[in-house]
């Protein structure tokens, strides 16, 4: 949703003054991301520590997918490994994929491959991690849509040879 500078500044002021609540905050942060309003970066980064998981994941999405801030790779990595909410973890996998799309980044592929292989992790997190791996290797919007819409059959739809190769590569990273 396109907003002008004045509207964004009003939203930021309202956020700073504590006048926004719940979904209003999420919508404001989303607007900051969509409009590349990086003046709000300190407030967005603060939301990464929110008790509200929706605010955590929208903040991370803005920092990684909209603003492509490479320094938040570590943030997404920590969320993927440690956030108590499944929704935050699966979105963090997507965020890592977005940050490293088409780069063949070995470190990120290694991290994601370990998640794909972790049978204790929720299936949706493993699926998002596999989809992110594919996007890092060679982004294909149709393939990403298919995975998002239909999931992955882990018995037949995963290239386990590739996943295990990335699990072994760069173990010292």
Write up this protein.
- The chain is mainly alpha-helical and 173 residues long.
- The protein has ten helices and no strands.
- Helix 7 (106-117) packs antiparallel against helix 8.
- The longest helix has 16 residues, at 123-138.
- The N and C termini lie far apart (40 Å).
- The mean pLDDT is 92.
Number of domains: 2
Shape designation: elongated
Q: Class by helix and strand content?
A: mainly alpha
Mean pLDDT: 92
Helix content: 55-70%
H-E order: HHHHHHHHHH
Q: What value does the Rg take, in angstroms?
A: 17 Å
Uncertain parts: none
Number of helices: 10
Distance between the termini: 40 Å
* Largest sheet descriptor: none
Tell me how many strands there are.
0
- The proportion of residues in beta strands is under 5%
Write the layout of secondary structure elements.
Layout: H1 5-16, H2 23-34, H3 41-46, H4 53-66, H5 73-82, H6 86-99, H7 106-117, H8 123-138, H9 141-150, H10 160-168
Helix pairs in contact: 1-2, 2-4, 4-6, 5-6, 6-8, 7-8, 7-10, 8-9
Please sum up the structure shown.
With 173 residues, the chain is mainly α. Helix content is 66%, strand content 0%.
Q: Which key features would you list for this structure?
A:
173 residues; mainly alpha; 2 domains; 10 helices; elongated
């Amino acid at each position: 949703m396109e907003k002008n500078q004045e509207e964004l500044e009003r939203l930021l002021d309202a956020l700073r003054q504590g006048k926004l609540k719940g979904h209003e905050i999420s919508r404001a942060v989303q607007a900051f991301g969509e409009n590349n309003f990086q003046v709000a970066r300190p407030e967005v980064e603060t939301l990464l520590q929110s008790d509200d998981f929706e605010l955590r994941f929208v903040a991370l999405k803005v920092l990684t997918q909209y603003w492509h801030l490479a320094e938040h790779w570590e943030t997404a990595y920590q969320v993927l490994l440690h956030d108590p909410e499944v929704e935050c973890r699966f979105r963090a996998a997507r965020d890592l994929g977005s940050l490293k799309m088409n780069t063949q980044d070995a470190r990120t592929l290694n991290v994601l491959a370990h998640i794909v292989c972790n049978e204790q992790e929720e299936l949706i997190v493993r699926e998002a991690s596999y989809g992110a791996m594919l996007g890092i290797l060679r982004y294909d919007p149709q393939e990403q849509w298919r995975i998002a819409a239909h999931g992955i059959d882990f018995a037949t739809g995963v290239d386990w040879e590739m996943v295990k190769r990335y699990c072994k590569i760069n173990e010292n990273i």
